[in-house]
Design goal:
Blueprint: H1 3-14, H2 21-47, E1 49-53, E2 56-59, E3 63-66, E4 72-75, H3 86-116, H4 122-150, H5 162-188, H6 191-196
Antiparallel strand pairs: 1-2, 2-3, 3-4
């Protein structure tokens, strides 16, 4: 066998198998859903008004009261809300949900790069992106749950605002897409095949 033939055979052996249409479609849908979750979570964190109860609007950044003329008066001093532990407890909640968005953006970037750059590390990038999305789920879900526990005396189902539900849905999407990303990676590239290479 000639040197050129040996090199060609080596290149063919190292070439990645072509992805099926359904695998590409599912990976694209995962990326799209993660992007939607990042947008929802960003809107929720930036607005931060999560609970309306007894004519008061409680949030991550502001406390607002509704006066007689339906004018919303907002202050950043959360101690005026007279909810025990709100001014201190909301600080880690803010940090968790804000950090969840940042981690999710890095995870989304790794997912996209793994699909655009078809190199030897594409599977590893996809796995790392999926793990970061799961970390975003943990941070986001902990923030949502902590806020609910902190405001337990004021909770009503109808009192949660649209931005609270945005964060709740974003956390759910982070979980689904993180798990799905890891699962599709293990289905399309079983570990025993990797060990043989």
């Amino acid at each position: 066998m000639t040197a050129i033939g040996a090199q060609a055979q080596r290149l063919l052996a190292n070439r990645r198998p072509q992805k099926s249409f359904f695998e590409t479609l599912i990976r694209s849908l995962i990326i799209l859903c993660v992007a939607i979750a990042v947008v929802l979570s960003s809107i929720s964190v930036c607005d931060g008004r999560w609970l309306f109860a007894r004519g008061q609007l409680f949030g991550l950044w502001h406390f607002c009261t509704l006066s007689n003329g339906s004018v919303l008066k907002c202050v950043t001093d959360l101690s005026l809300a007279k909810v025990e532990g709100l001014s201190v407890g909301v600080i880690p909640i803010r940090s968790m949900v804000s950090f969840a968005v940042v981690v999710a953006i890095f995870g989304l970037e790794l997912l996209m790069v793994s699909q655009v750059c078809e190199d030897a590390n594409a599977r590893r990038k996809w796995s790392m992106g999926s793990v970061l999305i799961l970390c975003s789920f943990l941070l986001s879900a902990t923030g949502v749950l902590s806020f609910s526990i902190l405001m337990k005396d004021h909770l009503t189902f109808m009192g949660f605002t649209l931005t609270y539900w945005c964060e709740f849905i974003a956390a759910f999407l982070f979980f689904l897409n993180g798990i799905s990303g890891l699962h599709i990676n293990s289905l399309t590239h079983p570990r025993n095949r990797v060990g043989k290479i």
